[in-house]
Amino acid sequence: MSLQRISAEQALSQLADFSTVIDARSEGEYAEDHLPGAVNWPSLHDDERKIVGTSYKQISQFEAKKLGAALVAKNIAAHIQRDVLDKPREWQPLVYCWRGGKRSGSLALVLDQIGFKVTLVDGGYKAFRAALVADLPQLAAQHHYRVVCGPTGSGKTRLLQALAAQGAQVLDLEALANHRSSVLGMIPGVAQPSQKAFDSRIWAALRSFDPTRPVYVESESKKVGNVAVPEGLITTMRACPCLRIDLAEEERVALLLEDYDFFVRDIEFFCTRLTALTEARGNATVQDWQARARSGDVASVVLELLKNHYDPGYLQSMQRNFTQHETARGLSPRNRSVEAMAELAQQILAEA
Fold first, then answer.
1. Domain count of the fold of the chain
2. Which of 66, 159, 258, 336 lies most in the core, judged by the most C-beta atoms within 10 Å?
3. Is residue 137 in a domain?
4. Which of 132, 160, 181 is the last residue of a domain?
């Protein structure tokens, strides 16, 4: 038989070598985090894990194992029927579960018996997570970054998107975090990843980059919504050269009204999010902003948020944390448009 085991460190370095990476854990475990690119073939579904666990506690370990074996056999049969019958002999899967034990082992054994070259991760997801956390700092340090700076609404994300469209290496932390990195930055209906999944997304992105070319990244704070940028990455970013976007106030307000159009469409959601600023700005100010927003004057509220809340804090943070901010190269797009940002990206890359 061709069943083999590799360490989590080997799995990290060889992910691209496998035909399919299979996560044999339940849907809930997979949703929290998984190896980059992995597909989910649960050996036990979420509800079945609970049933087996209850049997283990209330009846006996032996009875729980029998029940679990029946459920695992049923689920593996379904995976074979649905996902394996079309696979050629050359198909080579990597399989793992929580600690590389019974769930992944059962699936791997069946695939091995069929005749496929199957690989198991020693220690499973738990070992993979430890290896990824250990690898992130040195992986982050391999790259040299160009940090895109500028106050809220200056078009940093639009410039990153324009750079990416023209072939630059871009690490868009806000896109990876499903958040726009401020008190008002949550995206309605879009959940943030877990911290573990955020780390995995960053690791996968960094691993895909060429270390000989610059990586463009926004001047994020340590947290993007509810998730934290890995310490090794944020430390490296803060020592790198900066590019500063300068955009007129009226353009910044218009840009924010376009990019946060869901606030304009749902004023009550906007007003609810403004409540989070009560401690910092005072109840009277927040209530005034809410009243004006409800009356349709969102633009003036956004302008005051920029001038009185976001801009002072952003400048202080940049001066405190980014060592090359004072010598940042100034960039002045002609306006906020996508076309203007594309022109600016072209200019940056031509001069790089």
1. 2
2. 159
3. no
4. 132
User: Do 79 and 196 sit in the same domain of this protein?
Assistant: no
Judgement on whether residues 101 and 211 belong to the same structural domain of the protein: no
CATH value at residue 56: 3.40.250.10
Residues 6+ apart with CB under 8 A from 295: none
d(CA 273, CA 186) in angstroms, rounded, equals 9
Length of the chain: 352
Structure token pair of residue 41: 């073939």
Write out residues in the chain with pLDDT < 70, as ranges.
1-2, 100
Given 132, 161, 192, which residue is the final one in a domain? Answer: 132
Residues 284 and 309 in one domain: yes
pLDDT at 132 (0 to 100): 97
Tokens standing for 215? 């990586």
Both 146 and 70 in one domain: the answer is no
The active-site residue, picked from 97, 240, 242, 271, is: 97
Q: Which domain holds residue 335?
A: 142-351
Whether residue 214 is contained in a domain is answered as yes
Catalytic: 240? no
Backbone angles phi, psi at 6, to 5 degrees: -135, 160
Residue 214's CATH number: 3.40.50
Please tell me the number of Cα atoms within 13 Å of 266 on its side-chain side: 10
pLDDT at res. 100: 63
* Secondary structure (H, E, C), the chain: CCCEEECHHHHHHHHHHCCEEEECCCHHHHHHCCCCCCEECCCCCHHHHHHHHHHHHHCCHHHHHHHHHHHHHHHHHHHHHHHHCCCCCCCCEEEECCCCCHHHHHHHHHHHHHCCCCEEECCHHHHHHHHHHHHHHHHHHCCCEEEEECCCCCCHHHHHHHHHHCCCEEECHHHHHCECCCCCCECCCCCCCCHHHHHHHHHHHHHHCCCCCCEEEECCCCEECCEECCHHHHHHHCCCCEEEECCCHHHHHHHHHHHCHHHHHCHHHHHHHHHHHHHHHCHHHHHHHHHHHHCCCHHHHHHHHHHHHHHHHHHHHHHHHCCCHHHCEEECCCCCCHHHHHHHHHHHHHHC
